Amino acid sequence: MSEWLAMGGHGFYIWSSYAMMALCVAAEMWSLRQRRKAAWQRVDEAREEHESARPARRTETE
């Protein structure tokens, strides 16, 4: 098992490359989640602004 982990003397480079790749993927997923949350907040704010700017509907009794 330790021979497999050592990967012919290149284990440190290989496993650190895998670790950096995993870190970058995790950071990208976090960044995407934050941007998605911010985009939905902007959509909600725009929707609220649009609804508040719309005049009230008149009913037939008025």
Automatic annotation (TrEMBL):
<dbReference type="Pfam" id="PF04995">
    <property type="entry name" value="CcmD"/>
</dbReference>
<keyword id="KW-0472">Membrane</keyword>
<dbReference type="InterPro" id="IPR007078">
    <property type="entry name" value="Haem_export_protD_CcmD"/>
</dbReference>
<dbReference type="GO" id="GO:0015886">
    <property type="term" value="P:heme transport"/>
</dbReference>
<feature type="region of interest" description="Disordered">
    <location>
        <begin position="43"/>
        <end position="62"/>
    </location>
</feature>
<dbReference type="GO" id="GO:0017004">
    <property type="term" value="P:cytochrome complex assembly"/>
</dbReference>
<keyword id="KW-1133">Transmembrane helix</keyword>
<feature type="transmembrane region" description="Helical">
    <location>
        <begin position="12"/>
        <end position="32"/>
    </location>
</feature>
<keyword id="KW-0813">Transport</keyword>
<keyword id="KW-1003">Cell membrane</keyword>
<keyword id="KW-0997">Cell inner membrane</keyword>
<dbReference type="GO" id="GO:0005886">
    <property type="term" value="C:plasma membrane"/>
</dbReference>
<protein>
    <recommendedName>
        <fullName>Heme exporter protein D</fullName>
    </recommendedName>
</protein>
<comment type="function">
    <text>Required for the export of heme to the periplasm for the biogenesis of c-type cytochromes.</text>
</comment>
<keyword id="KW-0812">Transmembrane</keyword>
<comment type="similarity">
    <text>Belongs to the CcmD/CycX/HelD family.</text>
</comment>
<keyword id="KW-0201">Cytochrome c-type biogenesis</keyword>
